Amino acid sequence: MRVLYIDVDSLRPDHLGAHGYERPTSPTIDALAERSTVMEQTYSSSSPCGPSRGCLMSGVFGIRHGVLTHWGPGSRFRFPGQAHTYFRDAPTLTRHLRENGVSTVSFSSFMDRHQMFWFGAGWSQMNTFTLKQGDEDADEVNAAVIPWLRENIRDTPDLFLHVQYWEPHRNYTMPERWAREVEHAPIPSWLTPERVAAHRESAAPYSPQELFPGRRREDAPTPSMPRRIDDLEDAHRFFDGYDGAVRYLDDQIGMLLHELDLLGVLEDTAIILSADHGEALGEQSVYGDHTSAANAVHHVPMIVHWPGAPAHRQQGLTYQLDMDATICDLLGVPVPEGWDSRSFAPAVRGESGWSGRDQLVWDHGLYCAQRVVRTPQWLYQRTYHPGVFEHRPTSLYDAEDVHQVDDVADAHPGTVAELEEELVAWRQDQLARTDLPDPLDEILAGGGPYRYVQLEQWMRLLGENGRESEARRLRAHIEATARTCVA
């Protein structure tokens, strides 16, 4: 069986028509979803890019594979301590598939962008076709993939083909005409003028007045993005940039699938579309980045077209890394015992009795240090260090409050205590399976989650932007919260 895995960076499922979005972003993906299994409640177990793809490659949670940030303490991918050896009970997905007769081919600049060269382990072919480190557009990806398909696809019947696109990761560098495809449609109604005004009070990176950290405030990196967000009209324009990037990506995916059709292999090719993580678009005052363990950052699409399987939707909770075991299961390959990945193949096959996981735990360690417990009813967010953001030590949201507007922790102290106990138990269970420390502890011991944005640098920038009082308020919050939160 040929399996095409379309790995999209920063794609929110709720910005696809297949998930009910009303803006015209995704006709190709929607058509694929109509003949696929759509997993409605799939979440990345770690964010952002590096930690998530560590989970994809290893089949285990970030607390065990070691990558919860992009460099420095807490970013070391964990192989066995001996040369020329790999974990036998938890091999990388690529090595495991190859050992079971499946060719593994990737088209991705991910490992060059983040210098995470462990990602290259086990592939039959690793095509780093550009040195742009993720700044290439989707047409450049297709320009490399499509000639390879024409030369190889018919002769490779047992194949796992990984194609990674960076859209809609900011800075929305697609041709401007794609933003015009969506600009006349309304943006989601949860984002009101009052909420935009409240978001403007934030002094955190990627907030309305600080959209581009490190860049002069009068500059925007592309014409598709506003310089700042002063009102709902500016927010609309920001959404046009993100949604325009999704629409452009969708068109390029359509070209890829059309090529498979021309080559006569589309009907018997399994197609899986997912993402490494989502993107905040106003949630917690962040616009166009992935800076926390928020629901918007961790909820990802999981669309699985498997030839012969029925088209339907599933509501059970799943992790994005569960794709590893699912692929193995559907291919008839043994699922390694040491993986945290669990197969949802019964859901893809339409079998009765599958219900998903009882709860999920996910984490983020790049911009802040957080873990979340997600149950069918609740989302509990635990902050161990806020970075340069204004996160509370503990927050609780109704699971239906997907934009995390109303923190109800103070009204439900018993639920907060119960879910904190669940989180502590999960962490203890995970650490009992490894002799290495929690990488989140390594991040905290190394001074905190300061990577792309350093504390003093950010305080200076706020001062230069005339926001001295906001800088003082933010510093006081960070100092108080870090003292309270660090485990």
Taking pLDDT < 50 over at least 5 consecutive residues as the criterion, the unreliable ranges are none
Beta-strand segment tally: 16
Tally of helical runs: 16
Mean pLDDT: 95
Oligomer: single chain
Q: What's the CATH first level of the largest domain?
A: Alpha Beta
Bulk shape: globular
Helix content range of the residues, please?
A: 25-40%
Task: Supply Rg.
Answer: 22 Å
- The end-to-end distance, rounded to whole angstroms, is 47 Å
CATH superfamily caption of the largest domain: Alkaline Phosphatase, subunit A
Q: In this structure, how is the largest beta sheet organized?
A: 9 strands, mixed
Total discrete domains: 2
The CATH topology of the largest domain comes to Alkaline Phosphatase, subunit A
- Return the CATH architecture of the largest domain: 3-Layer(aba) Sandwich
Secondary-structure-derived class:
alpha/beta
Strand content: 15-25%
Q: Summary?
A:
This protein is α/β, with parallel strands linked by helices and 487 residues long.
Explain this structure to me?
This protein is of the alpha/beta class and 487 residues long. It has two domains: 2-177 and 232-348, Alkaline Phosphatase, subunit A (3-Layer(aba) Sandwich); 360-485, Arylsulfatase, C-terminal domain. It has helices at 27-34, 49-58, 62-65, 93-99, 110-114, 138-152, 177-180, 193-199, 232-262, 295-298, 322-331, 345-348, 413-431, 439-445, 455-464, 468-485, and strands at residues 2-8, 37-43, 46-47, 103-107, 125-127, 159-165, 269-275, 280-281, 287-289, 299-300, 302-305, 312-319, 360-364, 369-374, 378-385, 394-398. Helix 6 packs parallel to helix 9 (232-262) and helix 15 (455-464) packs antiparallel against helix 16 (468-485). The longest helix has 31 residues, at 232-262. It is globular and about 65 Å long. InterPro entries: Alkaline_phosphatase_core_sf (IPR017850), GAG_Ulvan_Degrading_Sulfatases (IPR052701), Sulfatase_N (IPR000917). It comes from Brachybacterium halotolerans. Residues 202-228 are annotated as: Disordered.
